[in-house]
Amino acid sequence: RMRIAVLTSGGDSAGMNAAVRAVVKAGISKGCESYVVREGYEGLVRGNTAPLTPRRVAQRHLPPERLARFSNEALVKNLSFGEGPALKEGAGDADDDEEGGTLKGRYIVQVGWDDVRGWMGEGGTFIGSARSATFRTPEGRLKAAHNLIKEGIDGLVVCGGDGSLTGADRLRSEWPELVQQLLASGEINEHQAALYSHLKIVGLVGSIDNDMALTDLTIGAPTALQRICEAIDNINSTAASHSRAFVVEVMGRHCGWLALMAGVSAGADYVFIPEQPPKSEPWEEEMCEVIKRHREVGKRKTIVIVAEGAHDRDLNPIKAEKVKEVLSNVLKLDTRVTTLGHTQRGGRPVAMDRILPTLQGIDAVNALLEATPSQPSYMIGIRENKILRIPLVDAVQQTQAVAAAIEARDFAKAMGLRDPEFDQ
Ligand code: ADP
């Protein structure tokens, strides 16, 4: 029986819970044991140091017929999260047990079918996400490898952004070396070294930014876009009523997808994105000209969207406050800045952020079951509405190539790499 673990890493995004649910349920239904790793790579590095909390902690809260459907650790997880079906029905606070009902000291936890019930429509990630500095170090990754082998995990699904998948690719490429080191230091025996000589790892892209190359859509991006649209719709009504200008700053890190798509969906006048800065210098003139034209043809409101990573052709950041100053001073528009902040991260996933993680989560499990040492590790993507497997290393490299092209101020190349259909 294969043991499959899933973790969520980096910035949270809507649909991560649905991804975990899909991997857990697909794993169990295909005869595997399903595990979750709490707190992203940090949990992998910390592993399990405390013994399993006894089943009787849960027995106090659950009727026996329900109990049978949970694994030992899963019961503890439900008590600790306080979110699962068990606690909703039962009473009691896990912390009042003298032996402790929490998951303290346990990061790699087996879960049962019922543990992920109701997770499909919930935002964020229940199993926690973290940014792990330790996992960036060789010692951290060695500990992570050791913990995976100790817990007998032979398949790992990582759901995260480009950073997390870069980390996954790194773990994959270093794996044979890590196993040899663990063997040499006596942490694992010959049998384990042979059994775990090949790391089966699959990436799911969970990111609100839609910033991963070689896939059309990342888990969480549609929900973030939806939230941004709703916010701009609200701004639009007041802007039109008062004939005002609004500058809206949206998230996206180094990627302009959210800003660009929000601009299209909300009828913005001007959008600043990192991949394609304004064509002329200084950018102020170009923007003012466009907005003036829109006002002249009768538009009562002005919306300018500034992506988080926007900059001019010399890579100087373009910030919302600066844009506001220009609109106020040059065009004499009554201008306000709106920063949407963390509301953009999502909350309840829209339908697409349930469909995408579900279909991709199932394929992630299939990819693990079919993995052979001679094949590359995959990232599960979607292109032209088809779920497909893309070599993880290619996706990571191409994403880095986009960043490098922007850094080198080759903006046409950046757009072309991000979107091969892009036509200057
Ligand atoms: P995201 O996955 O949302 O892009 P980060 O870039 O913060 O978020 O990456 C999440 C985590 O992935 C980091 O905290 C780190 O543990 C791991 N990671 C990122 N890049 C690397 C890398 N080059 N090598 C090893 N681990 C990495």
From TrEMBL:
Entry's Gene Ontology molecular function annotations: 6-phosphofructokinase activity; AMP binding; ATP binding; fructose-6-phosphate binding; identical protein binding; metal ion binding; monosaccharide binding
Protein's UniProt keywords contain Ribonucleoprotein: no
Keywords: Allosteric enzyme, ATP-binding, Cytoplasm, Glycolysis, Kinase, Magnesium, Metal-binding, Nucleotide-binding, Transferase
Keyword Metal-binding on entry: yes
Subcellular location: Cytoplasm
GO biological process: canonical glycolysis; fructose 1,6-bisphosphate metabolic process; fructose 6-phosphate metabolic process
Main location: cytoplasm
UniProt-annotated binding residues for substrate: S207, I208, D209, R244, M251, G252, R253, E308, R336, H342, T343, Q344, R345
N-terminal catalytic PFK domain 1: annotated segments: 1-424
Source species, domain of life: Eukaryota
Catalytic center residues: D209
Binding locations of Mg(2+): D162
Annotated positions binding ATP: G11, R131, S132, G161, D162, G163, S164
Gene Ontology CC: one annotated term: mitochondrion
Domain Phosphofructokinase: 3-59, 107-368
The family this protein is said to belong to: Belongs to the phosphofructokinase type A (PFKA) family. ATP-dependent PFK group I subfamily. Eukaryotic two domain clade 'E' sub-subfamily. Belongs to the phosphofructokinase type A (PFKA) family. ATP-dependent PFK group I subfamily. Eukaryotic two domain clade "E" sub-subfamily.
SUBUNIT field: Homotetramer.
Function: Catalyzes the phosphorylation of D-fructose 6-phosphate to fructose 1,6-bisphosphate by ATP, the first committing step of glycolysis.
Name of this protein: ATP-dependent 6-phosphofructokinase
Organism: Dacryopinax primogenitus (strain DJM 731) (Brown rot fungus)
Classification of source organism: Eukaryota, Fungi, Dikarya, Basidiomycota, Agaricomycotina
Whole-protein coverage range: 23 to 446 of 851
